[in-house]
Amino acid sequence: MSVPKELLDILACPLCRTEVRPTPDGDGLKCVRCGRVYPVKDDIPVMLPEEAKEEAPTDAGQFT
Ligand SMILES: [Zn+2]
Questions:
Q1: CATH assignment at residue 32
Q2: Domain range spanning residue 9?
Q3: CA-to-CA distance for 38 and 47, rounded, in angstroms?
Q4: Ligand 1 centroid to 19 CA: how many Å?
Q5: Which of 11, 35, 52, 57 is most open to solvent, judged by the fewest CB atoms within 10 Å of its CB?
Q6: Residues having C-beta closer than 5 Å to ion ligand 1
Q7: Is residue 62, in this structure, part of any structural domain at all?
Q8: How many CB atoms lie within 10 A of CB 7?
């Protein structure tokens, strides 16, 4: 799997300083507050707002 838990514990959404959680498919980290999904590239989380995809802040996980 990709991101170690120790890393998840220190990572936060740069916009709202809220914790992020791995997406079900494991290729992103989703902010629990604003719903932005930060990509994980080569097992390295990219915590940049301009790289994030905006999703509804639920776990629906669908793209429109
Ligand atoms: Zn956020």
A1: 2.20.25.10
A2: 5-54
A3: 6
A4: 8
A5: 57
A6: 13, 15-16, 31, 33-34
A7: no
A8: 13
